């Protein structure tokens, strides 16, 4: 299995939308290991001038940044995210200019636009293929977009958005880690490149704080995180792996496992019932083992959780959007 690179996440991305629901962290992105855009290749050149005799269109420059830096290694579910300084109105040119190869071969990758969850950016778009990235693959993304149009500026005659940056990214994927959480059996099953790696007992959200249904992606990791919610404030929750912006995690829950390590007796819930505030509670030893094995971009599926379906804006919920809908572009048309 290839070595994972642990690269700091832009802390602003996860420092918002942390309301006092589910297993909420007060730390936002601190201690995170997610990829950032610090070393992606960016060129800045003057946009080409028009040779037309008509009055030149006025331009509003749109700057673009991406979330995965060159040389990063991520899980197969990790979205490639572009963030925009301004809300654009048309993504067709941006989509058509995008070129993606996997192991040197072109692939069909599409953008889906939404309001950015990083308050320093106005909009973001997620790039994915119809299925997860292949395991242990080399991925190249080319965005030769500098000088191209992002659509007309609303309420401003003869004015258009123009991208100010061209970017390229080169990164890789690790082994395919696909986790499936069974609400009915109170278990978490880990598959590593199609082979079962382990089965672990869990406890999900109680009836009044149910765990979201659907497919999630590990967004960040932190050994110790402070979690707050109705009636509790725990500054030392251990071995945490974030799954949503509002605070769903995989984490160690020794308080939910009386008589640890045996977890015996009627007061125990891990492996038998749901009692958390939305997080996936694990026995301490299991949480440590999973923390060491899993990484940013690994996929965690909740096919029968009691909560509502996870939406893309609640985290890296990309895989809960059908491919047909994804190809429309979301908030900005790409077709």
Brief synopsis:
The chain is mainly β. The chain has helices spanning 92-97, 284-293, 323-326, and strands at residues 24-25, 41-43, 58-62, 64-66, 73-74, 80-84, 99-102, 105-106, 110-115, 123-128, 138-143, 149-152, 159-163, 166-173, 177-182, 187-192, 195-203, 214-217, 220-229, 232-242, 249-252, 280-282, 299-302.
Structure, described:
This protein is 6% helix and 35% strand. By secondary structure, it is mostly beta strands. It folds into 2 domains: 22-31 and 175-319, L,D-transpeptidase catalytic domain-like; 41-51 and 59-173, Immunoglobulin-like, CATH 2.60.40.3710. The strands form 4 sheets. A 10-stranded mixed beta sheet has the order 1-19-20-21-22-17-16-15-23-18, covered by helices on one side. Strands 2, 5, 7, 8, 11 and 14 form a 6-stranded mixed beta sheet that branches. A 4-stranded antiparallel beta sheet has the order 4-6-10-9, with no helix packed on it. A hairpin with a 7-residue loop joins strand 9 (110-115) and strand 10 (123-128). It is elongated, with a radius of gyration of 21 Å. Mean pLDDT is 86; it is low at 1-21, 25-32 and 42-51.
What key phrases describe this protein's structure?
335 residues; mainly beta; L,D-transpeptidase catalytic domain-like; 2 domains; ten-stranded mixed beta sheet; six-stranded mixed beta sheet; 3 helices; 6% helix; elongated; disordered N terminus
